[in-house]
Design brief:
By secondary structure, the protein is mostly helical. It is built from 5 helices and no strands.
Length: 112
C-alpha cells in the first residue's frame, strides 16, 4: 500500500524537478537575435538622448531599426544578373502570360 502511494509521488517529484530545471536554463540568443538586440539597444539610447516620446519615438525607432538592418545586396552570379535584367525588361514592356515566357526565354538565351 505504501509503495502504491509513494511511487506516483516519486514520479511526480522527478517530473516537476525536470520541468523546473528546464525553465531555469537560459537560452543563448542566436547571432541574428544578438544583432537585433544590439540594434534595439543602440536605437533606444539614441531615442533617449534625444528625449523622444510617444509617436515621435516610435517613428524614430522604426526608421533607426530599418536603416541599420539594411544589408548590402549580395553579388549576383552572371546568370542571376541576366535574369534580373530580363525581368526588368519584361516588366517595362508589361508582358504577361505566353508573351512574357517567350520574351524571357529569348532574353536568357542571348549571349551578353
Amino acid at each position: 500500500m505504501r509503495l502504491i502511494t509513494a511511487l506516483p509521488l516519486l514520479v511526480g517529484f522527478i517530473l516537476s524537478t525536470n520541468l523546473m530545471a528546464a525553465e531555469n536554463t537560459a537560452k543563448t540568443p542566436s547571432p541574428a537575435q544578438a544583432a537585433q538586440q544590439k540594434r534595439m539597444t543602440d536605437c533606444n539610447k539614441q531615442a533617449s538622448s534625444q528625449s523622444l516620446k510617444g509617436a515621435d519615438r516610435s517613428t524614430f525607432m522604426s526608421a533607426c531599426l530599418k536603416a541599420e538592418s539594411h544589408q548590402p545586396e549580395k553579388n549576383l552570379t552572371p546568370q542571376q544578373q541576366k535574369m534580373k535584367n530580363c525581368n526588368a525588361d519584361a516588366a517595362k514592356q508589361s508582358l504577361k502570360g505566353d508573351e512574357r515566357k517567350t520574351f524571357m526565354s529569348h532574353c536568357l538565351k542571348k549571349t551578353s
